[in-house]
Write a structure and sequence with these properties.
The chain is α/β, with parallel strands linked by helices. The chain contains nine helices and twelve strands. A five-stranded mixed beta sheet has the order 3-2-1-4-5, with helices on both faces. Strand 2 and strand 3 (about 25-30) form a beta hairpin. It binds adenosine monophosphate and magnesium ion.
Length: about 325
């Protein structure tokens, strides 16, 4: 089976064709803001300006008549971006007369992680720009055991970076600077029940910069505090669910320090830590194509009239008949 997947919920317009075993071809057209963070309308204009070229690029290698379905990110994400991608996916489905599959973006991050690692039924730490959740599957649904009460960890890193005068995306730059930090400065460690919060930490870190603390030390302190919160909640979910596997997914998951902290926590508990290859952690078309393929195999399709985008679609709303 061959499925084309289109991702475009936020910064990355990415299209891929996958089969059961591998990614056959993938193209990426990332949107990089001129200044500030991601502007939804500008990102959507970027996606619509590049989507024809992206498809031509894919079809230069893959015969469209060999495709069995077209999958797209139906949500969650930025409304204007989601609508642009959905329009392209509907058009392809009608023109090629093949099924349309609306894929939940968060489920796709997890599915690609399960596809590319040996994790069976892990506690998932999903950390990206807009989302931060601790998730695990119970029966045919993913359940959220803890999540951010305000902004995603990626968004928090991007905001702090912007304040420090660093260009978007800030996460990778903060990681580099943090590596050279040595002095820990206390920041609010906010966990309420199993949920966490980052926006107060961003303000407190900005105040440290205003007080003249070096940007390296601020980045270091920020990473240590925020990641410790995420690891604590992940560990508590493992204890509660009696699970011994952790799967890290989402764009922030490429961070070496976060991986190291999770690895140490798993080792201490006699558990195992997994993460998919780097190129499949941030938003990508392959994860949408692969999840679409799994859905299609169990007969899941999206009728055109039901393909309205869902900007607030939650991971725990999706039934998983393939599980
Ligand atoms: P996603 O939405 O899953 O594609 O993730 C995008 C987010 O990942 C952005 O907020 C980036 O700043 C963040 N990110 C990318 N690389 C890193 C890194 N090395 N460390 C921390 N965050 C990162
Ligand atoms: Mg994402």
């Amino acid at each position: 089976m061959l499925v084309l997947g289109i991702e475009g919920t936020a910064w990355n317009l990415s299209i891929a064709v996958v089969n059961e075993n591998s990614v056959i071809k993938e193209v990426r057209y990332p949107y990089i803001p001129h200044k500030g963070g991601i502007h939804p309308r500008e990102a959507a204009q970027h996606h619509s300006g590049h989507i024809a070229k992206a498809l031509r690029n894919i079809f230069s290698q893959i015969d469209p008549s060999t495709l069995d379905g077209v999958a797209f990110s139906i949500g969650p994400g930025m409304g204007p971006c989601l609508r642009t991608v959905a329009t392209a996916a509907r058009t392809l489905s009608l023109a090629l007369d093949i099924p349309l599959i609306g894929v939940n973006h968060c489920v796709a991050h997890i599915e690609v992680g399960l596809w590319k690692t040996d994790a069976k039924n892990p506690v998932v730490l999903y950390v990206s720009g807009g989302n931060s959740q601790v998730i695990s599957r119970r029966g045919r649904f993913y359940r959220v055991f803890g999540e951010t009460l305000d902004i995603g960890i990626g968004n928090a890193l991007d905001k702090l970076a912007r304040y420090a005068g660093l260009p978007h995306p800030g996460g990778p730059k903060i990681e580099k600077l943090a590596f050279h930090g040595s002095h820990y400065h206390s920041l609010p460690y906010v966990i309420k029940g199993m949920d966490f919060s980052f926006s107060g930490m961003v303000t407190a870190a900005q105040n440290l910069l205003n007080r003249g603390i070096s940007v390296e030390d601020v980045c270091y302190s920020f990473q240590e505090t925020a990641f410790a919160m995420l690891v604590e909640v992940t560990e508590r979910a493992m204890a509660y669910l009696e699970r011994d596997e952790v799967l890290l997914v989402g764009g922030v998951g490429v961070n070496a320090r976060l991986q190291e902290m999770l690895h140490i926590m798993c080792q201490d508990r006699g558990g195992r830590f997994f993460c998919p290859p780097r190129e499949l952690m941030g938003d990508n078309g392959a994860m949408i194509g692969y999840t679409g393929l799994k859905m299609l195999k169990t007969g899941e399709k999206t009728r055109i009239e039901d393909s309205t985008v869902k900007p607030n679609y939650r991971v725990d709303e999706v039934e998983l008949p393939w599980m």
